[in-house]
Amino acid sequence: MMKRMTTVALAALMMATVPGAALAQETTTTERPAEDRQVADSERRAEWFAALQTRALDAIEKRLGTIDDLEAAINRSTTVHAEHADQLFAELRASAAGLESLAQDVRAAEDLATLWELVPKIFEDYRIYAVVAPKVHLVLVADAAGAIAGRLEQATGTLGDALDRLNEIGIDVTDAEVLLAEMKESVASGATSAASVPDTVLDLTPADYPGSSETLRSAHSVLKSARTDLQLAGETAHDIVRFIVGALGGGDTD
Amino acid sequence: MQIGTRTAVLVLAGAIAAAGCGPRPTGSAGTSTEFDPPTGSPAVAATTSTTRGAGTLAPEPVIAAPTEPVAETSTTVAPAAPPSPDVAVDEIDSLLAGLDETLAELDQLLNQAAAALAAEEGEILP
Questions:
Q1: Structure pTM?
Q2: B34-55: pLDDT as tens digits
Q3: Please, what sign has the CA dihedral across residues A75, A81, A87, A88?
Q4: Which of A42, A197, B67, B71 is the most buried (most CB within 10 A)?
């Protein structure tokens, strides 16, 4: 009897302990990979964080370099209007200061979530490539075109004087007067087109993106049209000069 | 006839203003010696540059008052002798001289603007 009771107790103990032992064994084998994964994930997140931080700082540095280039382009321009240059310089300097401050925040970030919030600001708050750079270039083009228009307008006055002189001495200048009228029209059209662009683009801000893109593209088209007008005016001016020289009995001026 | 008179007066006054004496006009319109080469003599050029504003018509007292005494004309309007078309041609050549180059620079600026318009912000976040 006693032996039977001992056997039952051992069996019961086996029933009670074997699953427990099996469970304990299973737990040990599954915890180690989880820890490994956690370590691996942590390392990957650290690497990712570092890579993202580096890329963010590179992107900021690239934009600061572009700002330097844009400032140099404005300084090189001999035709940019002073008030336009002032406005562009102010915007570029503000953007540079903001990006430098953002770079400090990126360097100071200690977790991915913080970095994740900072990175979009590089684009959304500044739009150096989508808004600022095109704007600077377009204003420089517009003012350069305006300067050419000014020279051609001066030329129309000089040519008009010359035609008046010829007319006074009895030379028929009707054809040349027609050319001069065409030249004046081309100059006026080019000047008007060029002058309209700065007002259109100077006040664009990063917040205007993406709608600003269409405005900037349209401004570029306007300037191309202005350039065509000015070239036509120049060609017409040469035609008038040839007329004058011919009327005076001279040869080609080319 | 009227033109012939005006031309004669113009040339006479121009000659007086420029050199005090000079060749006589041939009398046919457009062939006055005032406009024959060499052109833009220093005296004429100097007179032109000191009396003309950019794009403005110089005073024409000689033509406007052909019947006035020569002495009075020479003393009152000599510095404002009308510029010859040759001088105007020189001036316009100067204005237009760098036009092609300037338009080429404008093209370069337009291309830079087009490149800037084509640039993208890029992406950092995966």
A1: 0.68
A2: 333 333 333 333 333 333 333 3
A3: negative
A4: A197
pLDDT tier at A37, thresholds 50, 70, 90? confident
A186, A230 Cβ separation under 8 angstroms: yes
If you average pLDDT over residues A24-37, what whole number do you get? 62
- What chain B residue is nearest to A243 in terms of C-alpha separation? B89
Give per-residue burial for A99-135: e unless 16+ CB within 10 Å, then b: beebbeebeebeeeeebeebbebbbeebbbbbbbbbb
Q: Which residues of B touch A44 (CB under 8 A)?
A: none
Average pLDDT over residues A11-25: 38
**Cα nearest neighbour of A225 on chain B:** B110
Q: Residues with Cβ < 8 Å from B89, sequence gap 6 or more?
A: A162, A241, A244, A245, A248, A253, B39
User: Are A159 and B92 a contacting pair, CB within 8 Å?
Assistant: yes
End-to-end CA distance of chain A: 135
Report CB contact under 8 Å: B55, A153.
yes
A chain contacts of residue B96, beta-carbon cutoff 8 Å: 155, 234, 237-238, 241
In one-letter notation, the amino acid at residue B38 is: P
Count other Cβ atoms within 10 Å, centred on residue B3: 14
- How far apart CA B45 and CA B40 sit, in angstroms, is 5
Q: Give the ipTM.
A: 0.79
Cβ(A152)–Cβ(A226) under 8 Å?
no
**pLDDT band at residue B95 using 50, 70 and 90 as cut-offs:** confident
Max mean pLDDT range (A54-68, B29-43, B64-78, B93-107): A54-68
Rg for chain B, CA atoms, rounded: 24
Nearest to B6 among A73, A168, A216 (CB): A168
Measure the CA dihedral B81/B82/B88/B90, to 10°.
-20
